[in-house]
Amino acid sequence: METARLTDPEYWQSDACDLRLNPQRPVDVAGLVDFIEQDLGILGAVVIPTSGTTGQPRFVVHTRKSLLASAAAVNRHATVTRDDHWLAGLATFHVGGLGIYARAMLSNSSVTSFEWDRWSRDGQAWTKAIEAAGATLASLTPTHLHDLVRHGVMSPRSLRGIFLGGGRIDPGLLEEAKRLGWPIWPSYGSSEAGSQVATSLVGDCDRLEILPCWEIRISDLNQCLALRGDALFSGYVMRDAASDFARWQFLPASDAEGWHETKDRVRLGEGTLSFLSRTDDTVKRKGELVSISALEQILAAQLEAIPFVVLPVPEPRSGVELILIVAPESKRLIDLDVINESLSPVERISQLLTRSSLPLTVSGKIDRDALLQEFACEVREWGDR
Q: Which range, 16-20, 168-172, 263-267, is most confident?
């Protein structure tokens, strides 16, 4: 995806709607721009697909103003100046990648682009790009960091900070990275927040400092994190189920007082935040969100009457691996390669395992916690794949 114009102030002042689509996930966006500009009256919109979800497309709608508010807060928090040099190696159809260009534009700092799909499992190409540019700042996901640590890659001397986000951060991985000299700044954020909500500049993944653009509280209803601030998105756009998906509908980002409630449970301290867990069935794999229920709905159409469950199992590199569990007699009826051909790369099943029957909770639902405990030790080591 073209990036040269993202450092141009004219892009950030434009009133045009910009669709930042994932080229690996084609979606039907007919009428979307007209709906946002004409029906909603939102000018300068930047539209980003919600990462990794399946089924009907849903988009996060930001304005350039909200993204610039996020960028200004990150710059202020990390003291970004014109003397800094960014290596932009994340996809610009995510806020983490797009935000780098906004921060660079506001701080008048330099940017060297590194295509997100050029990442190699040993991290050598990316590291060499850092060294060649003399970059001082960059962003990584835990999957990227796992690769660097696993191959014992030392940090280039020019770096003063690496924003780390996009998935669960393993404290052990963080400590190994520090021993290799990587100046890791763990962060918590989301597409809806325009990038970061809280970031630790001292490498503490348990106490992230809340950025100056945010008001934060714990909601009374669901005890989840709620946000309010200028960097908040405008709302979600998705197909209207009531019109047989022929039209678009809009879901505002916040309530009447400007608060947006997330699905994340966190612990708040004095100006700090600690991420605890998500409350829905969405997991993050390689920096992308995957809805387990939506994935199971797709598989149900292919597996027909075969009972199954998809289990997300923690894995050091990707954050989570997806395993398909069926009865022993059903295994021979399933071609995992054929199934995976119909799924996006981040949704693909890693392993097919069997169990004679699926454990149930008292309420009659599949007991995923029991399955996770049982199968976590059986999933093979994925680090060499």
A: 16-20
3-state SS record for the chain = CCCHHHHCHHHHHCCCCEECCCCCCCCCCCCHHHHHHHHCCCCCEEEEECCCCCCCCEEEEEEHHHHHHHHHHHHHHHCCCCCCEEEECCCCCCHHHHHHHHHHHHHCCEEEECCHHHCCCCCHHHHHHHHHHCCCEEEECHHHHHHHHHCCCCCCCCCCEEEECCCCCCHHHHHHHHHCCCCEEEEEEECCCCEEEEECCCCCCCCEEECCCCEEEECCCCCCEEEECCCCCCEEEEECHHHCCCCEEEEECCCCCCCEECCEEEEECCCEEEEEEECCCEEEECCEEEEHHHHHHHHHHHHCCCCEEEEEEEECCCEEEEEEEECHHHHCCCCHHHHHHCCCHHHCCCEEEECCCCCECCCCCECHHHHHHHHCCCCCCCCCC
Query: What is the overall mean pLDDT for the chain?
Result: 89
